[in-house]
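Contributing new records

If you add data, match the layout below exactly. Sequence lines come first and carry their own label; structure lines follow with theirs. Keep one chain per record. Anything else will be rejected by the validation script.
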Amino acid sequence: MAEAAASQGTGPSSARRWRRRTAALLLGAPLIAGLLSGTAATTAAHATTAAASAKAQPVSRTVQVTLDSMTPSAPVKSDTLTISGTVTNTGRQAVTSAHVGLRVGQRLNGRTGIDEASQRSGYSATLDAAEVGDKYTVKFPKLAPGISRDFTLSVPVSKLDLGGDGVYPIAVSLSGQTSSQQYEQVLGIQRTFLPWQPEAVDGKKSQLTYMWPLMSSTHLTAQTGSDEQQTPVFADDALAAELAPGGRLERMVSLGDQLPVTWVIDPDLLATVDAMTRNYRVKSGDGDVAGSNQDVAKQWLGELEDAVRDQKVVALPFADPDLASLAHRGKDVSGSLSHLQGATEVAEKTVETILHVTPSVDFAWPVQGAVDPSIVDVATSAGAHNVIARSDSLRETGGLSYSPSAARPIGGGTTAVVSDARLSTAFEGDMSRATSSTLAVQEFLAQTLAITLQDTEKQRSIVVAPQRMPSASQAQTMASALHALAGQRWTQPLDLGQAATAKPDARATTRVPGSSSYPGSLRKQELPVQAFQDMKSTQGTLDKFRMILTAPDRVVTPFGNAINREMSTSWREDREGAVIYRAGVQSYLDSLTGEVRLIQKSTATMSGRSATLAVTVQNQLVQPVGNLVLRLEPSNPSRLKVTTNEDANGGQPVKIDGGHSQSVKFTATANANGPVQVTARLYTQDGTPYGDPMEFTVKVSEITPTVMLVIAGGVLLLVLAGIRMYTQRKRSTARKESGEGDGAEADGGDDPEQPSDPTPDTGPESGASPGTGEKVEH
C-alpha cells in the first residue's frame, strides 16, 4: 500500500513530517552528489548500497511481518493504538539488532488512494514514512532463521501526528542487520489503514445497508417415508455441523443477532432445518438410517426466530434459483420460468410458517450482482421489483466524483439496488488467519469513511451484498467490521427495503449493461440447457402421476420442491453433484409411478366364440389410485373384438386401494380360430398413456360340427322334456278338479319329484389374479 503523492491539506503534523523528510534528504545529498560525480569513497559506496536495498526490499525473502490485531480499529483522540502481530525470519541468515517500529504516512486521497496503496508491496524509502519513534518500538537482539517472535506495539493516538479526518496508511516494519548486510535496513513490512474520524462527521453520514445471507447447499432428497408424517430422507447429515455451536450457520445467527443487518434468507434452508426437528432419515449405502440431530435443529431455529424478530427479513425464491442460468440457458425450455413463479410463491409461506415473520419477497439477487437485460427480465418475471446488482456490473459512466446511492430506476417499474463492489468483496478469501481478518476489517472501515468524506453534503445509501455463504471466519470478520461502525461517526444503518426506496441520484447510471458485458467466468459456471430439459421431463412425469393420485399433495409437494432445488445457485460449485441430484429425483419418481402397473400374463384360451378376458392391475403405493382407464387393443380386431365402455373412453375404469390389486374384465368375441395378440395399457382419463403396455396372446379353439350337433340335440331334448312335463302337469290339474286321478298320475310313469336343470352360476367374478397362461372359458 502506497502513500498518496498528494494530501488533503497540511497541518502541524504534516509540517513536522515534511521537516523530518527534508532533513533526511539534506543529509543524504552529499552521498547522492558523490554517486553522481563518480567518487569512489568507501562511505559513499556503503550509503549507495543501503539506499538501493531500502528502495525495494523483497520482504517475503527476509522477514515476514503479520498484523494479528489492531485496537481500536477506528480510534479517537484519547485512545491508545495497540497493534499485535508476529515477525518470522524466512531468510537463511540470522537477523541481529532488530526492532519492530510503527510508521504512519500522509492522508490518502479518497478511494483511489486506498486502492493504490493496497497494491503496494516492499519497502520504499521515498514513499514509506519514518518510524514514529524509538520509544514505541519492540527490540529483538537476534532473530534466527525460521524463528518467529510475537510483538505488541502500543502508541498513544496523540503521538501519531494525525491531521484532518481521512484515511492514513499505517505500517509495521522490522529493521535490522544480517551477516551479509551489516547495516540497519528494513527487512520486512506490513501495511494497513487507519480511518481517522474522531468525532461524528460534520455533515450527512452514509446510510449503510448490510445484507446478512442465510443459505446452504441442498441436503434434502425428494424421497419421503410411506408413513403418515412422510418422514424426509436427507442425502447426508452434513447440515448438522453447520447448525451446531461453532458451525457456519450457527455463527451467522449468533453474530447477526447483535448487528444492524437485513436478513436475506433462502426459505429452503428453513424448510430443511424444520424437517430435521422431527424424525428424519439419512441415506447410508443402499439404505438409510435414522437421523439424530433434532435438538441441534430446534436450537438453531429457536435462536434464529429470536434474532429476526422485529428485523427486516428478505426471502429469496425457494432454493435460491440461479437467475442467470435461467435467463441464458433455461428460458427457452418450456415451463422453466413457471418454476421461478412457484418458488417465489412458496417462499413467503415458508418463512411465515417457520419464523412467524412476514418477509419481503420483492427482491431478486443474481449471482455476484452481475446483470444484463435478460437477467433483469427473468428476475422480475416472478413479481420482484428490485434486482440486487453490483457496481462492477452496473458501472458508473457519468464521471461522478463520488459513489452514488444504491437505488437506480432502470425502467418498467424495476429498481436496481446496486451494492458497492469493494465493500461487498472485502471479506472474501481465507479469513481464518488473524492477519487476513485484521487487514480486511481495516480496509473495509477505510473505504466506508472515504465514501462519506467524498461529499458530506449528500446523504447517500450504500449497500453491501457479501458472498452468499460466508464461512464462520468470514462471518466473524464481517461482524467485527460492523461492530467498529457501531459508534455511527460516519455511517448509520439502513435496512434493504429502505435502501431500495431511497431517493436515487439523478446523475447515477441507470443503463443495464448488454449481454456481451456479462462476465465469461460466471457464464461458464451456469447450469446447462440439459439441466432445464431434465426438469421439464421430471415435471411432465409428475403432472401425469398426480392425475391418478387421491392424495396428490403427498407427492407433488416434495417433488415440486426438489425440482426447485435443481435450479439452485449453489450447484455452480458442484456441477457433477447437480447432475447426480437431477438423475436421482427422476429415478425415484419413475420408481413411484412404476408401483402402479399391469401384471404380466402370456396367454389366454377361448374355447368358444365369446369369453371374459381378465387383466390384473397392481397398486403398491400407500394411497389409493383412480382416474385410470384400462384398454385392451387386439392386433387384429376383425378376428377378435373386445367390448368397450364408451363412458370410460373405450376401456374399463380402474380404482385400487393402496397395497391391493384389481382384476379388470372384458368381454371378448372371436370371429375366427387361432391366436391373436392383445395389448393392454393404462391411460389417464384425459387419454394420456400411463406406464408400460403389456402384451399377451388370446388363443381361440376350433368348434367342430359334430360338437355343434350334439349341443343342438341336447337342447332339443331339453325342450321336448319341458313340453312333456308341462302337458303332464296340466292333465293332473284337470283330474284333480274333476275328482279323478287320486294316487298315481294317469300315465303312471312320471316322477313329480324330478329335479329341474341346475340354476346357472351368475355370481360375481373372482378378484383373484389370473395366472400366466390362464384358461378363460365360457
